[in-house]
Structures are given as C-alpha cells and as structure tokens.
Design brief:
The protein is mostly helical. It has one domain: Topoisomerase I, Chain A, domain 4. It is about 50% helix and about 5% strand. The chain has five helices and two strands. The chain has a two-stranded antiparallel sheet with strand order 1-2. The longest helix is centred in the middle third of the chain and has 31 residues. The radius of gyration is 26 Å and the shape is flat.
C-alpha cells in the first residue's frame, strides 16, 4: 500500500476522486431473484473521504494524502489579495478539496434520498435530521342543549 504523502498534486487528487465516484455509481451487487437466479443489480455506494484516502487510492498504488492533510487543506485560510506562489498553491488545494467534498456530499445526499440507505451516514455526516412534526390539536367546544333549558 502507498504511504500518505502530501506530494500528490490537487489535480491528481481531483482526477482520482472522479474515478472513485464513477466506481461508486457503477457498483453492483448480486441478489437472488424469485426464480432462484443470481442477478447483478445496481447498488450505488456512498462515497466517503476516509475510504477514498485510506483504502481506495492506496489500493491502486497511487500516492495519497493522510486524512489530517486533507482536512488541513480544507481548513486553509487563503488571503485572496496575496499573489505569491504559496498563496496560489494554498488556494488551489482549498478549492480542490472543497470541490471533492461537495461532490461526495451531493452524491451521498442523492443516494440517501432516492435509495433510502445510509440513513445514519446522512444524520452524522450530512447533518440531516428526521424531526417529527408536532401535530396541532384543535380543541373544539361542543355544547349540547336538551329541551328548553337555557
């Protein structure tokens, strides 16, 4: 397996992210049909940063970055007025990581919404909540009058 190295360029990381996304979209699983046949059915994977950085990239022997480096890049503070090479590099890293993170989240939200899987991932990572609506109970007063009583 490849060891984490910040030597990977943001462009390479982004290219690998899109290859990983294609793999997540194309994933299938085997399922037994009613007739007893084994069928391949589409089963999209929810993309995760941890799996992408720690397992998927090293599986191909590609250089990767550690998860802490990824989040360090994500939290870089960039001065837009600074035109130095270092500032440009930081800006490129930041924008690349934000783009990858946004695409992973968008795909995860789509899978959760349309396939109903990954509900705990959605709650913990995507901040989704299933808050029950409070029912408004209307109380109506009903008065029964019998006879001539007033």
């Amino acid at each position: 397996m490849a060891t984490p190295s910040p030597a990977i360029s943001p462009q390479e990381l982004e290219e690998l992210a899109y290859i990983y996304i294609d793999e997540c979209l194309a994933n299938t699983k085997q399922q037994l049909s009613n007739k007893g046949d084994i069928k391949e059915i589409k089963d999209r994977h929810i993309p995760t940063i941890g799996y992408f950085l720690r397992i998927w990239i090293p599986k191909f022997g590609k250089p990767t970055i550690s998860r802490t480096t990824y989040y360090a890049w994500l939290n870089l503070e960039v001065d837009e007025e600074d035109l130095s090479e270092k500032a440009k590099e930081h800006s490129l890293k930041l924008n690349t990581i934000k783009n990858i993170d946004a695409v992973f989240k968008d795909l995860a939200v789509d899978i959760v919404a349309n396939e109903g899987k990954g509900i705990f991932y959605a709650k913990n990572r995507l901040g989704m909540r299933d808050i029950p609506k409070e029912e408004e109970k209307q109380v109506q007063e009903i008065i029964f009058k019998f006879g001539n009583s007033e």
